[in-house]
Amino acid sequence: MMGTSHEAMNTMMEQMMGKESEEQMHIAMGKRLSGCDTSAAFPSQGIGFMPMMQMMTGGWGGFSWVFMILWWALIIVGIVALIKLITSQSRGGRGHEKPFGFAQGRSPLEILKERYAKGEIDKKEFEDKKKDLA
Questions:
Q1: H or E element that contains 102
Q2: What is the reported pTM?
Q3: What single DSSP character describes residue 65?
Q4: pLDDT tens across 90-129, in order?
Q5: Beta-strand (E) ranges in the chain?
Q6: Do 110 and 104 form a contact (C-beta atoms < 8 A)?
Q7: Number of H helices and number of E strands within the chain?
Q8: Helix H or strand E encompassing 107
């Protein structure tokens, strides 16, 4: 917690548990969060804070790391999706193709010339289709 929210939480903990128990709560949280004693016991007066403290300090069977991995995976997937969206729009993306399956920037005559060059059609067929296009 940062700023005034931390001070407000401290005041509330002091009112509920007393100054000494509030200090013991901070010591236990520090040990758990730093990893030097992940089983540090919270003061008995802090029982009302236990669900929140367990979540903050990696309790509940140690599954908090799973949620952290899922959170970062979601962020990474979002960034990748955003990059794909931006790059597909800059290249024209789907839905911007010319009608009849023509590739962007290629005319029917260019496609006909390409087919003739590949040997897919002979000279007579090329000339007939070229005349039809003109």
A1: none
A2: 0.29
A3: H
A4: 776 554 445 555 556 788 888 889 999 999 999 999 999 9
A5: none
A6: no
A7: 6, 0
A8: none
